Amino acid sequence: MPASIDLAVIGGTGLYRLADLQDVEPHQPVTRYGALSGPVRVGTLDGRRVAFLARHGEGHSVPPHRINYRANLAALQALGATRVLALNTVGGITERFAPRVLACPDQLIDYTWGRVSTFSEGDADDGRGGEVLHVDFGDPYTPALRAEVLRAARAAGVDLVDGGCYGATQGPRLETRAEIARMRRDGCDLVGMTGMPEAGLARELGLDYACLAIVANWAAGAGPQVDEVITFQNVLDNVAAASSGIPALLRRLLAG
Ligand code: HPA
Fold first, then answer.
1. For the chain, which terminus, N or C, has the lower number of CB atoms within 10 Å?
2. Which of 101-105, 114-118, 121-125 is the least confident region?
3. Of ligand 1's atoms, which has the minimum distance to the CA of residue 193?
4. How far apart are CA 233 and CA 216, in angstroms?
5. What global pTM score does this model have?
6. CA angle, residues 219, 118, 25, in degrees to nearest 5
7. What is the pLDDT of residues 143-160, one digit of tens each?
8. 12: helix, coil or strand?
9. Which residue, among 124, 52, 120, 56, has the nearest Cα to 81 in the 3D structure?
10. CATH number listed for the domain at residues 7-255
11. What are the residue boundaries of the structural domains of the chain, listed by start?
């Protein structure tokens, strides 16, 4: 039985380390699903065990459609994690989700394609004994964990928008203005490239999973300047600015 982990954090674009983690040890578990994005760094934060994994690799070398989501989540679970906080850098589509806002979405729409999106391969060799899984996904993020994240943010004095619909796109290119207009009509508030299949796979594994979305830019055509060009540097600058409250939020979340 692996030692338990109080919280696993998956970092997205611009979030490659958890600076406050103490006594960090790298782990690179071997999973039946192949290689992870990079080492899982397990350490302590205020005496609680926290695992951190950079989803794109620590040097941002893995594009969204090539991330081995299954290996990443299976490794976190093998290390003893039962709850996962996914940090996702996103574009904002609707008014409440301006650059530098933090949000805890409660819904998602999956526009990705061609990604391995299940552990359930329907053959006896798939590690699940061939069981076909049709997991409930009406609430794609675990309501109890979302509630804890929101409570932690309030206690830490960190502004966090409660709710919103995350639209997961294929990338790695950004979207056209027409695509974002369609996503807005569909009901999306946020757009990112890594929210799926991660959330669905976490549910298949029975992990508690919530998303902390960091708005890095207005999605194409969504901001006040319709033809604004989105640059990676701007994304990184906004993520850095918006992330300043995350350590305090995590500490409150771990304190329970
Ligand atoms: N679109 C998709 N993914 C993103 C964006 C965006 O505008 N910004 C950060 N990740």
1. N
2. 121-125
3. 3
4. 10
5. 0.96
6. 80
7. 999 999 999 999 999 999
8. coil
9. 52
10. 3.40.50.1580
11. 7-255
Strands 102-104 and 208-218: antiparallel
Mutate which of 109, 191, 214, 229 for ligand 1? The one with the most ligand atoms within 8 Å of its CB, which is 191
CA of 202 to the centre of ligand 1 (A): 22
C-beta neighbour count of 3 within 10 angstroms: 8
C-alpha span between 124 and 242 (Å, rounded): 45
Q: For ligand 1, atom 5, name the residue with the nearest CA.
A: 91
d(CA 104, CA 160): 7
Amino acid (1-letter code) at residue 9: V
Tell how strand 48-54 and strand 7-11 pair up.
parallel
What the block records as the tokens of 23 is 């006594």
What residue owns the CA closest to ligand 1's atom 10? 90
| Binding pocket residue ranges, ligand 1, CB within 6 Å | 89-91, 169, 174-175, 191-193, 216-217, 219, 230, 235
Q: How far apart are CA 243 and CA 241, in angstroms?
A: 6
